[in-house]
Amino acid sequence: MLFNSLAFLCFFLIFFAVSWSLRGRPRIWFTLIASDVFYGWWDWRFLALLWFSTLFEFFIAQRLHDQEDLRKRKQLLVASMSINLGLLGFFKYFNFFIASGSSALHAMGLHVPPMVLEVVLPVGISFYTFQTMSYAIDVYRREVLPERDLLKFAASIALFVHLVAGPIVRARHLLPQLASDRTFDLEFATSGLEQVLRGFFKKVVVADSLAPLVDAWFRQPGMFDGPSLLIAVYFYSFQIYCDFSGYTDIALGCAKLLGYDLGVNFNRPYLATSFSEFWGRWHISLSSWLRDYLYIPLGGNRGGAWQTNRNLMLTMLLGGLWHGASWTFVVWGGLHGAYLVGQRLLSPGLASLVRVLRVPSWLASLVGALVVFHLTAVAWIFFRSPTFTVAWEVIRGITTRFTFSFEQVQTKFLVLKGFALIAVLFSSEWFGSRVWMEQRLAAHSAFRYALAAAVLWALALFGTFSGNNFIYFQF
User: Is there a contact between 464 and 205 (Cβ–Cβ < 8 Å)?
Assistant: First the structure.
């Protein structure tokens, strides 16, 4: 059931009305059952997997908390992580590792018959697996108390607004909100509705308008010249941002309409002036998860420069692999790891140079943002390309078949429309980051109503209602 479908609109309206009419445990029961219906709409067979993960983590957390023997507690934690990573590895990476192993043996002259098993990837498994893992780890660290009510715990895992594509909501954040009935807050709900509208604008107007052009250019990059391929890279950079942050805005906005605060997952990442800042703004729930449960346990920045750079690289490589069973994702993660390492090595010298040359702060920020965006766009080439052949063809086309002529670009009207939509998006995000704009919107409700009306008109006039799937559903 896609957020941009009529089925979801009907589902949510019914859920909204019934949920606010119930109190206490009936409301939690309804939340759990309706969320299972939402997940089962895709494939009801994988509800068993969701429930297995839920029940297993619920009971393992009890044991982790009650057990005093450190050795046994470590054994329980290892069992929890082994089960979670084993399920994720089988469903997401089985064919990938089999194919990679066969290719490696073939390269060494050993010919083995291919082993093929069609494993269907359960939607959302990467997200709810990380959520349950973080819960067990937090209980092991004694940072949170285990939830003793199975109904509340199951509802926190299955809550439909974050189940299939995040954000990865920590138990410590969501479980307290399920502990008592929510009170309807008109201002909070209005904020949620505005966020939903922003999400639909990003997805339906911007991302889905750019998608056909990006698909065509990346499908056969050898047929296009440099300017077209460069535009394809720019467009994909904004397509994936608007697609994923659009989904997140819809999810978080729907949660607010239901009385839940699930935090922030995107914060205008293309305005970042450094790569560390970028990862503090992009997919915040995942980047903070990788920091807290991978980077810091590896040693973080506590062991000197070499160990810190190693930990950064390992974290980003595994973060890339989390996104999909392909070496192109690993390269994407490796590039971002290299960017973070390079930033640590070069930042002191660049800061000194800026001070010596007396570069204005606004100019230094502008140059930093442009550098971060363009290097991020280079990494997106590997993220979008299904194979290295396609990625190299895109890069080769840009670098060897490039001439500064817009006449060579096909579908000029659609390209101009795409740039116009990106300009509107970028302007709205820049103005939205200004404190004075936030204060004006808060003080004058007429501005909010006008913006909401403008978004509705934009959806009607420029929206691409093709029911395109969200990109991050595949992860």
Answer: yes
Q: How far apart are CA 377 and CA 419, in angstroms?
A: 16
Residue 151 CA, distance from chain mean position: 27
> Taking a C-beta distance cutoff of 8 angstroms, is the pair 311, 366 a contact?
no
Q: Give the tokens for residue 331.
A: 């390269």
Cα atoms in the Cβ-side hemisphere of radius 13 Å centred on 142: 7
Longest dimension (CA), the chain: 72
User: Roughly what angle, to the nearest 10 degrees, separates helices 24-43 and 47-66?
Assistant: 130
Mean pLDDT across the chain = 87
Tell how far CA 32 is from the center of its chain. 24
Domain boundaries, the chain: 24-181, 187-474
Please list, in sequence order, all residues whose beta carbon lies within 8 angstroms of the beta carbon of residue 224, skipping any fewer than 6 positions away: 217, 232, 397, 410
Q: What angle do CA 117, 328, 208 make, to 5 degrees?
A: 95
Whole-model pTM: value is: 0.89
Q: Is 374 a catalytic residue?
A: no
Q: Mind listing the pLDDT tens digit for each residue in 106-155?
A: 556 655 555 545 556 677 888 889 999 999 999 999 999 999 999 999 99
167 upstream amide cis, omega within 30 of 0: yes
User: Tokens at residue 165, please?
Assistant: 């594509």
Exactly one of 162, 283, 323, 336 is catalytic; name it.
Answer: 323
Alpha helices in 299-444 (DSSP H): 305-323, 327-357, 361-384, 388-400, 412-432, 435-443
Tell me 410's DSSP state: S
User: 367 by DSSP, 3-state: which?
Assistant: helix
pLDDT in tens, 205-253: 999 999 989 999 999 998 888 888 999 999 999 999 999 999 999 999 9
Per the document, the length of the chain is 475
> Which are the contacts of 164, defined by CB distance < 8 A and separation ≥ 6?
39, 42, 123, 124, 127, 473
- List of long-range contacts for 460-466, beta carbons under 8 Å, 24+ apart: 462/205, 462/209, 462/417, 462/421, 463/200, 463/204, 463/205, 463/208, 464/204, 464/205, 464/208, 464/209, 464/211, 465/4, 465/204, 466/208
